[in-house]
């Protein structure tokens, strides 16, 4: 096999690292690029906790001894249970530990450009100027570039009056300020709680009629749940209940559902709601306005923002804030992947902005694979979480082995 016949993995978060680990186990030559765990280190609040339990927060490796509980054991700590949310800082340390042990060949360089080569394969240009060829490319570039700010708010991002939750690691700079947080999912709720705890005056604006939170687990291990409960709502990687069992265990079948059904399930299964442990940090702590929609936003001439709100009861209202944070999630949009040449982007067949993928995560361009959030519209909600790394990495490494 010559040097051109190798797989290029772009991204060093859980999905890129798991892909590299599985390729390595199959002896497929690869190069992997990116800053390890950068999505978690540079685009999430440092004082955040994971919403997923320790039981479903391990990065997949083929070799044994790489689970979150193995990392904890090595630090001399107990494995942790459903009732112990994982601090972000610990998960980042686990990810770096995983990378150093499993994928030490990671190259901490950014991939600037990927072009198609005449006759097949790809030409890859790195930020340090190196250019080389590969037979296949796996894009594991994460969620940050898909951060979604609603069009009513987007123009004010240029003035620094509006930002996305992904722009913040530390909310300390908002102490003493009025901050409107838009959204009702985990990111919006946790950002508002952290803003309040760090001395800001948040107001949460949610379209939903009420806020939703998960129920506190009654046992530390899913296996210890009473039998009747386990039959009614079995445990799975994504949580408890038959719909979550189906999405956790059958992502391959999800791909065969009609587009309309997949789209609806992706937005309704598991969203938007806050983790059970957030409720007491939200309820009664700061103003929450449910059933409202932001219809317009403009600078107020005093360095802040005036928001025009439309309430479910038809009443219009105004709110002034020093700053607005959009906790409005992420939307896959191939048009934002500017590291792919325009020609490659044109050749990728999409549905609703996301690439259409084969059972092996390959797009309509032979040898071009997408994993992580970009694959969620095809394989369902499992791919939005770390617990999907095993399914994705097994399939991609098997397909790439056939290609190499
Ligand atoms: C606030 C928040 C909380 C979350 N909480 C949870 C949770 O509790 N549990 C859970 O399972 N999931 C959670 N998620 C989802 C989580 O982000 C994904 O499960 C996971 O990070 C996806 O991994 P990834 O490898 O696809 O992306 P990321 O972790 O985002 O990694 C992307 C990687 O790509 C690299 N990269 C990007 N562009 C380039 C380039 N051009 N060249 C080289 N490298 C590049 C980056 O450096 C980085 O290494 C959360 C997401 C958010 C936003």
Automatic annotation (TrEMBL):
Annotated FAD/NAD(P)-binding domain ranges read: 6-212
SUPFAM superfamilies per record: FAD/NAD(P)-binding domain (SSF51905)
Q: Which residues form the signal peptide?
A: none
Mind listing the UniProt keywords for this protein, alphabetically?
Oxidoreductase
Q: Which Pfam families match?
A: Pyr_redox_2
Q: Does the keyword Transcription regulation apply?
A: no
Tell me the domain of life.
Answer: Bacteria
Keyword Oxidoreductase carried by entry: yes
What InterPro entries does the entry give?
Auxin_biosynth/cation_transpt, FAD/NAD-bd_sf, FAD/NAD-binding_dom
Q: What is this protein called?
A: FAD-dependent oxidoreductase
Species of the source: Streptomyces thermocoprophilus
């Amino acid at each position: 096999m010559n040097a051109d016949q190798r797989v290029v993995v772009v991204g060093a978060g859980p999905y890129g690292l798991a892909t590299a680990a599985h390729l390595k186990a199959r002896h497929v030559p690869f190069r992997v690029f990116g800053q390890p765990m950068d999505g978690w280190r540079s685009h999430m609040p440092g004082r955040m906790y994971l919403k997923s339990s320790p039981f479903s927060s391990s990065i997949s490796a083929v070799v044994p001894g790489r689970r979150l509980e193995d990392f904890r054991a090595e630090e001399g700590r107990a494995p942790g249970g459903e009732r112990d949310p994982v601090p972000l800082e610990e998960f980042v340390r686990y990810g770096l530990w995983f990378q150093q042990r499993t994928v030490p060949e990671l190259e901490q360089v950014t991939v600037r450009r990927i072009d198609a080569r005449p006759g097949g394969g790809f030409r890859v240009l790195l930020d340090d100027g190196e250019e080389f060829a590969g037979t296949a490319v796996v894009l594991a570039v994460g969620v940050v570039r898909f951060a979604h700010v609603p069009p009513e708010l987007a123009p004010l991002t240029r003035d620094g009056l509006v930002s996305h939750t992904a722009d913040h690691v530390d909310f300390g700079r908002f102490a003493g300020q009025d901050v409107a947080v838009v959204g009702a999912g985990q990111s919006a709720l946790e950002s508002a709680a952290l803003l309040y705890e760090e001395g800001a005056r948040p107001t949460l604006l949610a379209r939903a009629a009420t806020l939703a939170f998960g129920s506190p687990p009654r046992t530390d291990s899913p296996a210890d749940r009473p039998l009747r409960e386990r039959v009614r709502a079995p445990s799975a990687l994504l949580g408890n209940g038959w719909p979550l069992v189906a999405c956790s265990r059958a992502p391959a079948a999800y791909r065969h559902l009609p587009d309309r059904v997949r789209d609806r399930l992706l937005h309704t299964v598991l969203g938007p709601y806050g983790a059970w442990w957030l409720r007491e940090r939200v309820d009664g702590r700061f103003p929450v306005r449910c059933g409202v929609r932001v219809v317009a936003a403009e600078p107020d001439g005093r360095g802040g923002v005036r928001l025009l709100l439309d309430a479910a009861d038809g009443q219009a209202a105004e709110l002034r804030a020093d700053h607005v944070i959009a906790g409005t999630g992420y939307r896959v949009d191939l048009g934002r992947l500017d590291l792919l040449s325009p020609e490659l982007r044109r050749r990728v067949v999409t549905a609703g902005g996301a690439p259409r993928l084969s059972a092996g995560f390959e797009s309509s361009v032979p040898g071009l694979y997408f994993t992580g959030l970009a694959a969620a519209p095809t394989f369902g909600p499992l791919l939005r979480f770390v617990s999907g790394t095993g399914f994705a990495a097994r399939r991609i490494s098997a397909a790439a082995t056939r290609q190499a």
